[in-house]
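Practice problem: predict the structure.
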Amino acid sequence: MKQRNYSLDVCRLVAAIWIVTCHADIFIEAGDGIYRFFARFIPRVGVAFFFAMSGYYYLKSIEKKGIFKKQLLSLLKVYAAWSVVYYMASFVVNVVMGDEPIGQFLIERVIFFVTRGSYSHFWFFTAIIYATILSTLFHKLFGKKGICALACISLGFFLLGNLGSS
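Answer:
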């Protein structure tokens, strides 16, 4: 039987609230600086925390046989299923009722699915899929030292990315 880590559960609750604040536009009347801090900067920490949590639990189980395949297929199934739902609606709007050529529609959707997420709010699927692949590769090639190096590189990119964003 799995033991729950209640400290992590409390942190996940706080991070979830931060992420909701990103979409709720709280403090918009309080001024631009306060709004940006509470509605744009803080929520990014919440998203990063959820990524770190996923990585923490994945790395705890990475030694198990077949976990990479199981994790990757699980992510791909959910991502593909929701992408199909959105692609069907988008096909009707953009191709059937709009002017977009079907070839262009299909090419763009395949490229988006693999690179930035099938839709802008699905960006995290591609991010978590690539993170799973990279962490597994670094673990297989370099062991725990590779994971530590990858964590340092990731933290550096995270901090750098937050310098130039809202």
